[in-house]
Amino acid sequence: MSSIKHMVTFTLYAGKDTPEAEAFLKESEAALATIPGVEQFEVLRQISEKNEFDYSFSMVFADQAAYDTYNDHPVHRKYVEERWEKEVSRFQEIDLIQHEN
After folding, report:
1. Domain coordinates of the chain in residue numbers?
2. In the chain, which residue ranges form alpha helices assigned H by DSSP?
3. What is the DSSP code (8-state) at residue 17?
4. CATH 3.30.70.100 is the classification of domain 4-97
5. Are 37 and 69 contacting, i.e. CB atoms less than 8 angstroms apart?
6. The overall pTM is greater than 0.85
């Protein structure tokens, strides 16, 4: 199996381009990017008018085991409970692997 690209696109209760949103993005990267197994962490801002979400996080995991370690990591679980569930109004999560013909 190839590496997994994990992406989540979301909108915050605080709105787009607010000081609260900027703090959320910065603090989220500081917490999540340091979890073992996370590679290529990116914070992205949506610019398409065709998409209802404002921001995205993107990261890569070497394999399913690395992805599972991230999901079960205490820092991730605490982040989801204390930040994500309280500050994100809606989201969509996407997990992708390389398509092989």
Report:
1. 4-97
2. 19-32, 64-72, 74-79, 85-87
3. S
4. yes
5. yes
6. yes
